[in-house]
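Look over this entry.
=====
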Amino acid sequence: MAARPRFTSRATVLVLVLCSLVAILAYPTRQFISQRAEISAQRAKADHARQQVDQLRRDKARWQDPEYVKAQARARLHYAVPGETPYIAVDPAGPAARPSAPAGSAAAADAAAGPAKADKPWYTSIWDSVDAADTVALAPAAPRPLPPSSVGDPTPHDH
């Protein structure tokens, strides 16, 4: 009896049809999955926006209460009720209590140059730094001392 071929023409056609179906359906399936992920991301974003709206509504309702407005005015704007004596506690370690730097120090120079730098646009600062980097002369490199060598050692050393 003659041996039958391993792959018949029907099996070959079936394999080709299955491969073409996989190739045809791969792109739409990938699009479907990416759209589902995008939909879930948009739903999460909408839920977050809803939560923000709810929080803002609660804040608006709170601001409608005159007692809350008075408390906020006292806390934020340092308002006082007539008859009270308002005061503000100042931290002694704050910027006003710091000792001033000597006139010749770099910190004093930076503080003096601060307002002048703020007056210039950002691109002039960049261009000035490029000019400064271009005009700086490189200092000649100092010769490095040679490592100590033993006089009687006949073996060569690679340094």
